[in-house]
Design brief:
Blueprint (H helix, E strand, L loop, with lengths): L3 E11 L5 E11 L5 E6 L7 E6 H7 L9 E5 L7 E8 L2 E8 H14 L5 H25 L1
Antiparallel strand pairs: 1-2, 1-7, 2-3, 3-4, 5-6, 6-7
Length: 145
């Protein structure tokens, strides 16, 4: 199975309190890696940068502060749930992005239709069993021929 969900959203890259600019960010979810989402940032003048993290972190982060370490997500106003902040950090370097929650929810809804939340393990097990079965069939055909 090689199904995926993609979306492009505009995010504000918050350079400082006084400086931000809008950038396109590609969101991607693939059923062959059912626990992760990928965000590819297209920063002006730089090569695209991709971050992968848990789909569940993105789901939880649109409603409440979530994340420890390199990726943190939280709504800007828990009462309104209109925008979220995504903070990415590597060592002392960090980048902060603001994004509308509705496009994230639309993307997450599409991922849930592809692989329902909580069904990731079943899909991963199915893929492993399918690969094993196909390998066995191919080996049997080669031995028979």
């Amino acid at each position: 199975m090689d199904d995926s969900v993609q979306a492009e959203v505009m995010m504000n890259f918050l350079v400082s309190e006084d400086l931000s600019f809008r950038i396109p960010v590609e969101l991607r979810y693939e059923s062959d890696d059912p626990y992760a989402v990928r965000l590819t940032f297209h920063l002006p003048g730089d090569a695209p940068v991709t971050w992968a993290f848990g789909r569940e972190l993105l789901i939880d982060g649109v409603g409440r502060p979530c994340g420890v370490g390199d990726v943190r997500i939280e709504p800007t106003d828990p009462d309104l749930l209109d925008e979220a902040l995504i903070k990415l950090q590597v060592g002392a370097e960090q980048a902060l992005f603001r994004v509308g929650i509705p496009p994230l929810l639309a993307f997450l809804d599409r991922t849930d239709r592809l692989v329902p939340l909580g069904q990731e393990r079943a899909l991963a097990d199915f893929e492993a069993h399918l690969d094993e079965t196909l390998d066995r069939i191919l080996a049997e055909e080669q031995n028979a021929g």
